[in-house]
Amino acid sequence: MEMLNANPQDSFLQHALALEYIKAGNDAAARRLFENILLHDPGYIGSYYQLARLLERTGEHKLAIEWYEKGMAAAKAAGDQHALGELRAAYAGLVDD
Questions:
Q1: Contact, 57 vs 89, CB < 8 A?
Q2: What is the pLDDT of residue 6?
Q3: Element at 93 (helix H, strand E)
Q4: Going from the N-terminus, what domains does the chain have, and what CATH number goes with each?
Q5: Where does residue 52 rank: exposed (0-12), middle (13-18), buried (19+ CB within 10 A)?
Q6: What pTM, to 2 d.p., does this model score?
Q7: Contact partners, residue 55, CB within 8 Å, separation at least 6
Q8: Are 13 and 32 in contact (CB under 8 A)?
């Protein structure tokens, strides 16, 4: 937490804290962090996947689909084929249901 206080806009640190919030069962805090990351650092591809999965898990499927789509666009723009594949697979699993 000290590191995040020293670097409050560090996407890596925010992402790591959001994952810890998920483990602790605090989806609302995790969601706020993921949304903040993507607002300030839309190129932080991993947060699209995690935010969409969180939304999917909490029953917000339409919003999850939107974040998967945004993530796929960001991954494609960044040339990140691995992330693009993961996002596509998760998206397809949700859309096909």
A1: no
A2: 61
A3: helix 81-95
A4: 2-95 (1.25.40.10)
A5: buried
A6: 0.91
A7: 31, 61, 63, 64, 67
A8: no
